[in-house]
């Protein structure tokens, strides 16, 4: 029997009068088993999101996969906790994922400017940001969750709530996730960091008169992301990659070839402009046009947030406090902990500059306070998957960078400190979004908000430790430059380019301005600026396989005979794709750990296994393995 939430869960009634799904009995869903399982899920989703996000520039929200996995674990280990235990597990899953979705935007940028970061520094600023974001969002809980019930719809929270209520069907979802994990893990072992016996990149590069490059990376992780995000996002990104590789790159190559005895490439004195190859054009020019587009998109997002900022702060200050809205000691402790740890982090990362530590810590807290409130409100409107974290972060970092320049702090060490302050801000913003989403689910199903706060905070701290560890583990690969880098890091590259360029006054401003103008044109055409900009910046090998995943989803939708059949197949496809993402990222991460530790020493594929032909075979195998289970889904699977 499928159960549903009451219609009042979606509004039509004052929040204080809403009767939750669990309206009687204990509100507690936690015990030691739930806590341990939640920590495991937080580790899983933090590591998976960090790996896949740095690889593709896109992240997948963990709420629904977390609720599905949580349903299975609760049924096995803590059945008496029921839906309230499942709710805590989805919240802890979101806690790990939210932290990763924020930290990977800024912290890896430290490696990209040629500096280093210690685990202690990353952990302290991350924990400070996470606790401050959670504590601040808790202060406006009653306004965002209760008083705005039915006005702020929290679309992803409602989807998670429906999943929890209908969780008796989770066995099928977990089966498809398992299939996806197996496919993703097996292909990653063959083509990636384990055996590495088969080439997985279809590559064609033309270095003659018309310079271009087309590649497809046969990666189950990226294909899964494509199925989840759908055709609109995938096609926008791929179209932008076509513009980058088949219009802008050949154009720059053509005009550059006309020069005789010309100057060297601006950031590589060993290559003359008229002798540039495709990789030189992409790395030294096209990349910075993409950075300008992302900068433009981020600033446009920030400007468009001004009305939301004003209304959020105004409504928060004017909100009438109801009888049960007093803050708990845990809420106060978490907020105070965020502030104290934030200041400790400020002194830790400022290299003994007390003035920097005090001024920038205060500014970081103020910017975080402002955007945390906005983050909570926007989550209620568009959900965390679409939360403009990068836009809010860019606006914050530009302000902090201008302060650094004004104070004369322009060295690489100062830039490193700046990016660590930026890590505090972005972590607070991302944590607040995930926390608000999880608390709305708690309100709908009838859990204890204070219990969710504590469990979410634990998951966030765990997430910070995991993400910092993953970044340090991958540091040698993240810092790589050139044409075929293993991790694209579009947002972190933008942060490093922006801060280092402003502080050193050595940005290729023509390229940046061209990209910014293109971003402005995209905005006027009502196109998704950041989506297109990320597609322009990412390698076409990434956007092409993401498009393949979206095409599989489109095919599934088209061959479905009824709306119910389509709903079932897409739902199972999303579960399978979540497994692909988890399998590809977790197994890939394990492979890198084994490589670093010296357990695995592969020489790479050879002979036919190293050719495009092998990569085509791998692509066909991946598409068949991913599509067939979805197409065989039947309506009875969820009935």
Automatic annotation (TrEMBL):
<feature type="transmembrane region" description="Helical">
    <location>
        <begin position="532"/>
        <end position="556"/>
    </location>
</feature>
<dbReference type="InterPro" id="IPR045035">
    <property type="entry name" value="YSL-like"/>
</dbReference>
<feature type="transmembrane region" description="Helical">
    <location>
        <begin position="455"/>
        <end position="474"/>
    </location>
</feature>
<feature type="transmembrane region" description="Helical">
    <location>
        <begin position="286"/>
        <end position="309"/>
    </location>
</feature>
<feature type="transmembrane region" description="Helical">
    <location>
        <begin position="354"/>
        <end position="374"/>
    </location>
</feature>
<keyword id="KW-0812">Transmembrane</keyword>
<feature type="transmembrane region" description="Helical">
    <location>
        <begin position="576"/>
        <end position="596"/>
    </location>
</feature>
<feature type="transmembrane region" description="Helical">
    <location>
        <begin position="57"/>
        <end position="78"/>
    </location>
</feature>
<protein>
    <submittedName>
        <fullName>OPT oligopeptide transporter protein</fullName>
    </submittedName>
</protein>
<feature type="transmembrane region" description="Helical">
    <location>
        <begin position="386"/>
        <end position="405"/>
    </location>
</feature>
<feature type="transmembrane region" description="Helical">
    <location>
        <begin position="507"/>
        <end position="525"/>
    </location>
</feature>
<feature type="transmembrane region" description="Helical">
    <location>
        <begin position="417"/>
        <end position="435"/>
    </location>
</feature>
<dbReference type="InterPro" id="IPR004813">
    <property type="entry name" value="OPT"/>
</dbReference>
<keyword id="KW-0813">Transport</keyword>
<feature type="transmembrane region" description="Helical">
    <location>
        <begin position="176"/>
        <end position="198"/>
    </location>
</feature>
<dbReference type="Pfam" id="PF03169">
    <property type="entry name" value="OPT"/>
</dbReference>
<dbReference type="GO" id="GO:0035673">
    <property type="term" value="F:oligopeptide transmembrane transporter activity"/>
</dbReference>
<feature type="transmembrane region" description="Helical">
    <location>
        <begin position="123"/>
        <end position="144"/>
    </location>
</feature>
<feature type="transmembrane region" description="Helical">
    <location>
        <begin position="330"/>
        <end position="348"/>
    </location>
</feature>
<keyword id="KW-1133">Transmembrane helix</keyword>
<feature type="transmembrane region" description="Helical">
    <location>
        <begin position="32"/>
        <end position="51"/>
    </location>
</feature>
<dbReference type="GO" id="GO:0016020">
    <property type="term" value="C:membrane"/>
</dbReference>
<keyword id="KW-0472">Membrane</keyword>
<feature type="transmembrane region" description="Helical">
    <location>
        <begin position="218"/>
        <end position="239"/>
    </location>
</feature>
<feature type="transmembrane region" description="Helical">
    <location>
        <begin position="608"/>
        <end position="631"/>
    </location>
</feature>
<feature type="transmembrane region" description="Helical">
    <location>
        <begin position="99"/>
        <end position="117"/>
    </location>
</feature>
């Amino acid at each position: 029997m499928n159960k549903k939430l009451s219609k009042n869960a979606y509004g039509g009634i004052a929040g204080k009068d809403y009767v939750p799904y669990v309206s009687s009995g204990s509100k507690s869903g936690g015990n030691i088993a739930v806590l341990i399982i939640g920590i495991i899920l937080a580790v899983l989703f933090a590591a998976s999101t960090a790996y896949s996000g740095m690889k593709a520039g896109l992240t997948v929200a963990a709420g629904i996969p977390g609720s599905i996995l949580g349903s299975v674990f609760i049924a096995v280990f803590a059945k008496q906790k029921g839906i309230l235990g499942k709710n805590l597990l989805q919240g802890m899953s979101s806690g790990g994922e939210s932290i990763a979705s924020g930290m990977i935007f800024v912290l890896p940028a430290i490696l990209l400017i040629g500096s280093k970061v210690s685990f202690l520094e990353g952990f302290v600023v991350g924990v400070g940001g996470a606790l401050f974001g959670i504590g601040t969002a808790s202060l406006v809980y009653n306004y965002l969750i209760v008083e705005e019930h039915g006005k702020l719809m929290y679309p992803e929270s409602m989807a998670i709530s429906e999943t929890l209520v209908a969780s008796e069907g989770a066995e099928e979802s977990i089966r498809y996730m398992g299939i996806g994990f197996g496919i993703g893990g097996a292909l990653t072992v063959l083509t990636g960091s384990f055996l590495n016996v088969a080439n997985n990149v279809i590559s064609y590069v033309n270095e003659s008169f018309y310079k271009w490059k087309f590649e497809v990376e046969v990666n189950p992780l990226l294909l899964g992301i494509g199925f989840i995000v759908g055709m609109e996002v995938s096609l926008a990104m791929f179209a932008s990659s076509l513009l980058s590789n088949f219009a802008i790159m050949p154009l720059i190559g053509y005009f550059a070839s006309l020069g005789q005895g010309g100057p060297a490439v601006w950031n590589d004195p060993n290559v003359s402009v008229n002798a540039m190859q495709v990789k030189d054009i992409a790395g030294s020019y096209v990349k910075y046009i993409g950075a300008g587009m992302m900068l433009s998109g981020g600033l446009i997002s920030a400007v468009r947030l001004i009305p939301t900022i004003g209304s959020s702060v105004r409504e928060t200050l004017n909100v009438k406090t109801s009888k049960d809205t007093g803050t708990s000691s845990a809420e106060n402790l978490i907020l105070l902990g965020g502030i104290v740890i934030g200041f400790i982090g400020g002194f830790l990362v400022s290299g003994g500059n007390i003035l920097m530590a005090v001024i920038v810590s205060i500014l970081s807290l103020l910017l975080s306070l402002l955007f945390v409130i906005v983050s909570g409100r926007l989550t209620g409107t568009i959900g965390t998957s679409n939360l403009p974290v990068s836009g809010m972060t860019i606006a914050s970092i530009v302000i902090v960078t201008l302060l650094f320049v004004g104070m004369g702090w322009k060295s690489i060490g100062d830039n490193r400190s700046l990016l660590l302050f930026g890590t505090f801000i972005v972590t607070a913003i991302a944590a607040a979004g995930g926390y608000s989403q999880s608390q709305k689910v708690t309100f709908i199903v009838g859990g204890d908000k204070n219990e969710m706060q504590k469990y979410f905070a634990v998951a966030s701290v765990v997430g910070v430790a995991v993400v910092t560890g993953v970044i340090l583990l991958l540091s040698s690969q993240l810092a790589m430059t050139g044409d075929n880098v293993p991790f694209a890091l579009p947002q972190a590259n933008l942060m490093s380019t922006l801060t280092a360029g402003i502080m050193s006054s050595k940005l290729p401003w023509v390229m940046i301005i061209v990209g910014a103008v293109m971003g402005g044109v995209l905005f006027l055409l009502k196109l998704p600026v950041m989506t297109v900009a990320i597609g322009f910046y990412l390698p076409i090998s990434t956007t092409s396989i993401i498009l393949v995943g979206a095409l599989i989803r489109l095919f599934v939708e088209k061959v479905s005979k009824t709306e119910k059949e389509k709903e079932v197949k897409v739902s199972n496809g999303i579960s399978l794709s979540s497994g692909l993402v988890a399998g590809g990222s977790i197994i890939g991460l394990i492979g890198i750990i084994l490589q670093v530790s010296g357990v695995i020493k592969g020489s790479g594929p050879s002979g036919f296994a190293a050719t495009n032909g092998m990569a085509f075979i791998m692509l066909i195998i991946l598409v068949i393995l991913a599509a067939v289970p979805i197409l065989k889904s039947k309506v009875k699977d969820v009935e």
